[in-house]
Specification:
By secondary structure, the protein is an all-alpha fold. The protein is about 70% helix and about 0% strand. The mean pLDDT is about 90. Bound molecules: zinc ion (2 copies). One zinc ion (ZN) binds next to helix 4 and helix 8.
């Protein structure tokens, strides 16, 4: 199929046999988007116009800062800030007309503060929008679409999913939601019937591995093996919140 660009990474993500294949894909998309944003793209006019308008979320500012391309990030930020300053000026003038008049210094009344909707809207938009998040989301949407296509048409892929470690809660939610429109009623019922037990079992397994991990803090259990609990905290956080706090070595041998 022509969508090889999505089917290959999707298959590879399931082959990696992690706690959530979609988190695996997200991690790669995030790395690619960071590289793209701080690569030569910011010198392209259309990209810059988009970053000027959208800006970035808190997490991605931090991640971009950590990449240490100080010049690139400063350039991106300077024109984004210029845009914010222009928009903020317009919004404030529109919401609080006296800013533009001789009455500038009169006492700010409650009625004026109630009118500041354009400013509030601009601020919340600035906080919520993110060039990198949007870039990732459009690819993730295609992955989800391809996932359901393969589930319906490729028995090999379906088997991989059925033998997987399930998904994190967030991506399980995405599949429950998107499945409604991507599958017919019968297919959807079959899908939920097969996927839900896999997810539930995997969550219970991680819960038990965490309990074992906790147990190993007690010196009386020093001689007992770690079983599969060594990275259960990282895997537990991934399962619960879709956050990869540390690299997880899935081949970590039992002792
Ligand atoms: Zn996930
Ligand atoms: Zn973001």
């Amino acid at each position: 199929m022509k969508e090889r660009i999505y089917t290959v990474p999707l298959n590879e993500a399931f082959d990696a046999d992690t706690e959530c294949a979609f988190c695996e894909l997200h991690k790669k998309l995030n790395e690619d988007a960071l590289r793209y944003t701080l690569g030569a793209s910011y010198m392209e006019e259309d990209v810059r116009e988009t970053t000027d308008n959208l800006g970035f979320c808190k997490a991605h500012y931090k991640e971009m800062y950590d990449v240490q391309n100080r010049l690139g990030l400063s350039l991106i930020l300077s024109t984004h800030l210029k845009k914010i300053n222009e928009k903020l000026d317009k919004a404030l003038k529109s919401d609080f007309k006296t800013l533009d008049s001789a009455e500038k210094t009169r006492i700010f009344k409650k009625a004026d503060s109630d009118k500041m909707s354009k400013t509030a809207e601009l601020i919340s938009k600035t906080e919520d929008s993110c060039f990198i998040c949007e870039k990732i989301k459009s690819s993730m949407d295609r992955y989800v679409e391809t996932f359901f296509f393969l589930w319906r048409t490729e028995p090999d892929f379906k088997n991989k999913v059925l033998n997987s470690k399930g998904f994190c809660i967030e991506h399980f939610g995405v599949l429950i939601d998107e499945g409604k429109s991507k599958l017919n009623q019968k297919e959807y019922a079959e899908f939920i019937g097969k996927i839900a037990p896999i997810v539930q079992e995997s969550l219970k397994r991680v819960e038990e591995e965490l309990l074992w991990f906790i147990k190993k803090f007690d010196y009386r259990f020093d001689d007992l093996p770690w079983k599969n609990s060594k990275n259960s905290l990282q895997r537990g956080i991934l399962k619960t919140a879709g956050v990869l706090v540390d690299k997880i070595n899935y081949d970590e041998a039992d002792e």
